[in-house]
Amino acid sequence: MNPADYDAWYDTPRGRWIGETEYALAVRLLAPQLGDSLLDVGCGTGWFTRRAAADNLQVTGLDPNADWLDYARAHSSPALNWVEGDASALPFADASFDHVLSIAALCFVDDERQAVAECVRVARHSFAIGWLNRSSLLYWQKGRGGGSGAYRGARWHTAGEVRALFSGLPVRNPKLRSAIFLPSETGFATLLERGTPKVLPWGGLLIVAGEKN
């Protein structure tokens, strides 16, 4: 999939609803203040990066794909920072950012455990990291047989597997939440999303959030 087609998906009713729902959960868990710095790890075309910038955060997007970063730069404000880099070896000093965000990106990284440790290392206050959930309707739609579309090649995890990635890391108050219980933009899906407790681990996206020790 090319970056233009990927980014255009977020302009569709389904893509916009999923993106906004995932972002709303992540930012609620991060609880940033106006002007805080945020690193978006695995930013791709920068949809979540731009979304965070719209909330008056000082945002940097990082991705290993130069072509996708070129697209992100061409479709964003010059105030945003874009860095080519590997999530498993982030090119930043310890505690460089107030918050670290990553949405369904580390499931494409070879060493997820190392990438998680790096996200925690560069966070000053909080982090929110999301994975694709194997125990979800989204998995049955898009994840089986190696995945389809933008999900091809991604690893899907259970809640227990995601929690285990944080074992031994310097974090406190870790929380696991999920979103996208019915992966569509219908009115019923919206009502279900609003009424379903986010502590139930069956949404298409699993997010682990916590604070840096």
Provide the helix percentage: 25-40%
Structural Rg: 16 Å
Mean pLDDT metric: 96
Q: Give the SSE order as H and E letters.
A: HHEHEHEEHEHHEHE
Q: Please count the helical segments.
A: 8
Strand order of the largest sheet: 3-2-1-4-5-7-6
Percent of residues in β-strands: 15-25%
Number of separate domains: 1
| Strand tally | 7
Helix/strand-derived category reads alpha/beta
Task: Give a description of the structure.
There is one protein chain. With 213 residues, the chain is α/β, with parallel strands linked by helices. The chain has a single domain (3-212), classed as Rossmann fold (3-Layer(aba) Sandwich), CATH 3.40.50. The protein is 35% helix and 23% strand. The longest helix is centred in the first third of the chain and has 18 residues, at 13-30. The radius of gyration is 16 Å and the shape is globular.
Element layout with pairings:
Blueprint: H1 3-9, H2 13-30, E1 37-41, H3 47-54, E2 58-63, H4 66-74, E3 81-84, E4 97-103, H5 112-122, E5 123-132, H6 137-143, H7 159-164, E6 171-179, H8 187-195, E7 205-212
